[in-house]
Design a protein that fits this description.
Layout (H helix, E strand, L loop, with lengths): L2 H13 L4 H30 L13 E5 L3 H5 L4 H9 L5 E5 H12 L5 H21 L4 H4 L1
Antiparallel strand pairs: 1-2
Helix pairs in contact: 5-6
């Protein structure tokens, strides 16, 4: 959605007093803009820390930055733009995963796993994330903040 289209739709929703959905869209747009800045800053740092390989399967290609406690968990908190985005990008909440492991991890969160190898990979990722959460002493977004 272009900025102009968003602003027109926002004004229309304001006039019709249906802003609740637009507040979420506006938050989401702001989050994505800020997230991009944080990712550009933290991605090289976390990749270097993790030895430029997937921390689950040791793959060295198609690496992605992944939140251990999900970004969506932080987005649900009040005042999330000011407090939660920086908290979601803490070193101990980020990990390097390859594209496949990252995709499996997100699908596992949604309960979508088709093959046995995906289920095994998801189990391995879950174990890795639980170990990290236990080591850092907190697991939820609220506990991190």
């Amino acid at each position: 959605m272009s900025k102009l289209a968003f602003e027109l739709a926002y004004k229309r929703a304001k006039k019709e007093k249906t802003l609740d959905g637009f507040r979420e869209v506006k938050k989401s747009r702001s989050y994505n803009i800020i997230k991009r800045e944080y990712q550009d800053k933290w991605r090289p740092k976390i990749f270097k820390r993790d030895g430029h390989k997937c921390m689950n399967c040791q793959e060295e290609y198609h690496l992605q930055l992944c939140h251990i406690t999900t970004a969506n968990a932080f987005k649900r908190l009040n005042g999330y733009l000011e407090v939660s985005i920086p908290a979601s990008f803490r070193d101990d909440n980020l990990i390097t995963l390859c594209f496949v492991c990252h995709k499996v991890q997100h699908n596992a969160d949604k309960g979508i796993l088709f093959s046995q190898s995906a289920k095994n990979r998801a189990k391995s990722i879950r174990k890795l994330f639980n170990e990290i959460k236990q080591k850092r002493g907190c697991s939820t977004a609220r506990e991190i903040i």
